[in-house]
Each structure stands twice: as structure tokens, then as C-alpha cells.
Amino acid sequence: MKPIIAPSVLSADFANLQRDVTMINESQADWFHVDIMDGVFVPNISFGLPVCAAINKHAKKPLDVHLMIVQPEKYIEAFKEAGAAYISVHAEACTHLHRVIQQIHAAGCKAGVAINPHTPVNVLENVLNDIDLVCIMSVNPGFGGQQFITRTYEKIKQLNKMREEAKANFLIEIDGGVSDKNAKQLLDLGANVLVAGNFVFNSKDPQATIASLKSLG
User: For substrate, which residues are the binding ones (predicted)?
Assistant: First the structure.
């Protein structure tokens, strides 16, 4: 199976956002990864509903919306309206995680759960068959361009084993520090979706960089 490549628009040029959206449309990328940050759950503020909707207006591929916010349950329907196909919430931000997963499905979206680098994968044990995606953060969330945390390899291995044992069908997504130096190993261990930000947008030829990741499957 070919990997799903999801360029992170957090690393795009916000002054030329339509240009970068067009680039992703014309590339071999599969999804747009859209990071929503509130300055509370993570120490940064990115963009919100209006920018998400603006991206969706021009995007020809699904929006993979990653909510790095407190009380995400308040905004599920709004992000659905803004164009989200996948909505991922953080396990650490949800007191009633199962209820929020149900809420995402009820809105007509695919449900994802993200976990921070310090969070063990076994917190997902009771929702494995209820989710469509697990986003493993391989950097501390909040800022692009951070160094990949090598403990991620072991977490993918553990989660892949849990997926097999539960006969679950969720995708494993890796978000942070993904590059040509680690992408193949991530996929070999069981990852299905690669989120790439700076590695794509800081390259001389972003479309060729996306194609190189896509060819690793």
C-alpha cells in the first residue's frame, strides 16, 4: 500500500496560501494537514475556522484537521462545516474521549485521536475499534521544524501490534520531523500517513519532495 502523504499547511507561506494550496492540488499528495492551535493546549496560535474554510474553498483533496485545542467538542460541527474530512482530537484534551469520537462520526467526518510524545499508546486501548486514525506526535506540538523524537519508532511498533490484535482498521499517522531520513523506517514499522511540513515547503521542489515520499510505499 502506498503511503498517504499529508503536507502540513502550517509550514506554507501564509502570504501566498492559494499558491501553496494549488501546489498541493497538483502534487502527488493525498490530503491537506491543517493544524489548529489555540495558544492554550499548545504554546502557539495558528489559524482557525475562517482559514480552514478558505483552504477548503480551493483544495481538491481531503482536509485532515488536527485540533490542538482545549474542549474540542465545542467546535466539531463548525470544522465539519469548514470542510474537514478527518478531525483529530487530542486524547489529553478530552475528558470523555469516546463521546467526542462519536460526535465526530455523527457530524459525518472520520475520527482521529492524537497523542503527545509523552503519552503511551495504551491510552487508546478502549477506542481502537471506534477510530479511523491515530496521530502519533513525533515532536512536541505547537511549532514546526522540531527534531524528530526517536522514541516514536517504538510507539509505532506497539500501536501496530495493538491494531493487529484488535483487528482494527485505523490508519497510523506520524506528525513532526518527517523527512527522507526516517520516512522509510516509519512506514516499515506500520505507519500509513506521513505529515510533512518544513521538509516539503522548504525544499527547492516541493512537488518532487512529495513524490519522493509517495514512492516509498
Answer: 8, 66, 142-145, 175-177
